[in-house]
Design goal:
The complex is a heterodimer of chains A (200) and B (79). Chain A has seven helices and five strands; from the N terminus they run αβαβαααβαβαβ. Chain A is of the alpha/beta class. Chain A has a single domain, classed as Hypothetical Protein Ychn, Chain: A, CATH 3.40.1260.10. Chain B has 79 residues and is an alpha+beta fold. Chain B has one domain: TusA-like domain (Translation Initiation Factor IF3, 2-Layer Sandwich). Chain B is built from two helices and four strands; from the N terminus they run E-H-E-H-E-E. In chain B, strands 1-2-4-3 form a four-stranded mixed β-sheet, covered by helices on one side. The chains are: A alpha/beta (200), B alpha+beta (79). At the A-B interface, helix 2 and helix 5 of A face helix 1 and helix 2 of B.
Chain lengths: 200, 79
């Protein structure tokens, strides 16, 4: 064996050097950390809470949602509290409601066509004027945008607790593809991996 | 710059306001092939900033914009 040849036997162990086992252990650890980082990475996703049941705010919600999905984002909308009645279908009715349920059912808007402006409603006059103006100026209605949202694959979740509180039944909700009933955890699961979260 | 572009398809969004030109464009692109050029006609002033942003985000190339009497013509090359 020539003196220049390096073999395991000729190599002097360096003080403090890591053994192969230690190295592979460290690599495994780094792999694990990388996986955690990748899992926690935010996606091009928009999570939107529609809390409001006002015409202007719901309209804005749908404009942002459809715009985002057109831009290539994954979009989820969560309807809760005053936003819940927006998803009722005016052609559908649900029986078996108690007194409070009936009262909420009558007093809250029945679907997107029944929502009012948050400002300048003036006993409904302002809302009527706004709807006329929107038609005149060719601004899409909530109903039209909701149809497009369905077509583009915007996912809609409805807060089960709000529905229960206001006495709404599943059979009176709109026919929206994959309409899902959920709780707060489902929203948070989506929100935590979304780059954009909005509360409207 | 836009004179020698021959679009494969035309989408007329005249009179429509935000976000409809964007949504209709998205819809139209779905039925087109890669490399084809879509001509979008819009009278909505917001489209001026919206379509370039859409192009940047989605990777479709905006070849050019032409302004003519109150409306704008956009040429978008499908990714």
């Amino acid at each position: 064996m020539s003196e220049n040849t390096i073999s395991k036997e000729t190599l002097e162990p360096v003080e403090g050097a890591l053994s192969l086992e230690q190295l592979s252990e460290q690599i495994e650890e780094i792999k694990g950390q990388l996986q955690t980082l990748t899992n926690g990475a935010q996606e091009d996703k928009l999570s939107l809470i529609v809390f409001s049941g006002d015409l202007d705010k719901v309209l804005a919600s749908f404009i942002i949602a459809t715009g985002a999905v057109a831009m290539g984002l994954d979009v989820v909308m969560f309807f809760t509290f005053w936003g819940t009645p927006v998803l009722r279908d005016k052609k559908k009715a649900a029986g078996g409601k108690d007194f409070m349920g009936k009262m909420f059912g009558t007093m809250l808007p029945k679907g997107a066509g029944g929502v009012k402006l948050s400002k300048m409603n003036m006993g409904g006059m302002g809302t009527t004027m706004m709807r006329t103006l929107m038609k005149k100026k060719n601004v899409a209605s909530i109903e039209q945008l909701m149809e497009l949202a369905a077509e583009f694959g915007v996912r809609i979740f409805v807060c089960e607790m709000s529905m229960d509180l206001m006495g709404f039944k599943r059979e009176e909700m709109v026919d929206y593809p994959n309409l899902t009933y959920c709780g707060v955890a489902k929203f948070l699961e989506e929100a935590v991996e979304s780059k954009i979260q909005l509360f409207i | 710059m836009t004179d020698n572009i021959t679009p494969d398809d035309t989408l007329d969004c005249s009179g429509l306001s935000c976000p409809m030109p964007l949504l209709k464009t998205k819809k139209q692109l779905g039925s087109m092939k890669s490399g084809q050029v879509l001509e979008i006609i819009s009278t909505d002033p917001g489209t001026k900033n919206d379509l370039p942003a859409f192009a940047r985000k989605t990777g479709n190339e905006l070849l050019g914009v032409k302004d003519e009497d109150g409306r704008s013509l956009y040429y978008l090359k499908v990714k």
